[in-house]
């Protein structure tokens, strides 16, 4: 049992395989955070539960370490909850009421207001083998009057006692998502958030905290990720007394709502964990947890071909058939037609919303292409962007009232499109309806679901939750419903690249499109940042043209494949133009990928050389039972001739011997100890050299 409560000490302990998470009820009846980190004897932490006061000016220092904490009294830290009761009182006093333990690993701690019939349940779900805890709250109003909820966060995490707190997070923009950032926190708040209606490319709801000295392989790291795909907010607040609170949930910005009498509100899940083996261990814990408990039941990612970069909007059935034949010859398993197959969608200015197959582009219908694709031994997949509409579309002409808009405003167009107010029941029905028809009528095995703009001028939802929340809830409901109706169909989350990937969306998505930037060198940075938080098993990476259409960089085909083989492999180049030699080389890489993809997708990731430390970047994956491992190594540029480079591997069995081969060359046998200590000599020549090591335990 991972959950303990002692009546004597009034301490709760959540015990995972390697950590203790301790909180308790203090003398004032408030639930107070006590300790989070390596395993301890919880009872011996009792001294940390006592009230802390600095002076009569800072009488309640302990209020900043409340396990949740609402705004009220002398609570000045970022609150978990801020409310206004029906009579205008805006002070919340949450006292401990009791607890419940459900099943093996779930704990509910009950809080209630001292005066009002207003309750907050804090839920904890423990994943002992991953050292991870999921938290969320349920707020219930049993008053006769509605309660206005101004801020309702999912959880508050506490980290205490470090001389410095360094926050790691990601930042970015379209075509430059998931760039790793590190900052030492001074007193005050560091806020990462989205107010854009979706998760966003500019920030992502994941954080890590260390003392500034942890590295890939050593040091204590506290981390968390929020499962919400709309407006979110994570506030890291360092107090002047050296305490760090990380408060996260749905963004309160423009988000107040009334909780009716008898109604309750449930927050999204905020996942948190602790790792003692540095950032590498943190990522591996998160990845394993995601694979086991977040992602839908799954198989290995299929090798896909996507025709977007080859044809853009100029989708023509016969051209697609030509591409499909070439893709099949490469060993591709899933052929995906992207934007441009429907309505009058010949560019990004028209047609969005008209989800009928364009008869000029598909004279024999879409199913004819699907039959060809299936005849070639591949599955068929299709792109959609159901939440959006071009003003130049039949849908918009029929339902101009369906878009987000304020009545006195025209509404901002982004990428020449508006966003549908998915909070409206009729819009939700429309989306569910056309998607159901599309999937019922055609033999489609895969959907790439895009959302290419942010929310602006959000208007209002018909009732209840704020419009921002309604949109996300309806997206989740539609995905859940489509998955139930079409269990054989797999889904990819995409939002103008990687702008909607988080633990909320990943409960429904089999895979994710991480960025529209397909330059294999830029991708190393994007993929590295992404994989700090998210499992490489969902990270879709395409091999595209050289020079790259986005930035003009030329890279060898091998480099492009190596970079793309570190997640789910796709090909997005115009393969009709590839030479026989390129086709032959690509075919070999696809075959190789199929051999190693189990290790990549279900294995453990070690960042041997993260980007920026040297002119090498190296990533190793160790398969489930340790029998297989692969390492991808990339060279930025050559300087002054090359001294021998030795790559020190990780995650191997020191006593075991491994057959190691570089790029399919002859294998040599080495002990794990040697490979991890002295390393393996690499040959890497030329700028943008890359190589792949395969290890098999003997
Ligand atoms: C977005 C996606 C791309 C592609 C285009 C199509 O930018 O991220 O992969 O599907 O839309 O318009």
From TrEMBL:
It comes from the Bacteria. Keywords: Glycosidase, Hydrolase. The keyword RNA-binding does not apply. CDD domains: GH36. InterPro entries: Aldolase_TIM (IPR013785), Alpga-gal_N_sf (IPR038417), Alpha-glycosidase_related (IPR050985), GH (IPR017853), Glyco_hydro_27/36_CS (IPR000111), Glyco_hydro_36 (IPR002252), Glyco_hydro_36_C (IPR031705), Glyco_hydro_36_N (IPR031704). Its EC number is 3.2.1.22. Residues 30-259 form the Glycosyl hydrolase family 36 N-terminal domain. This is Alpha-galactosidase.
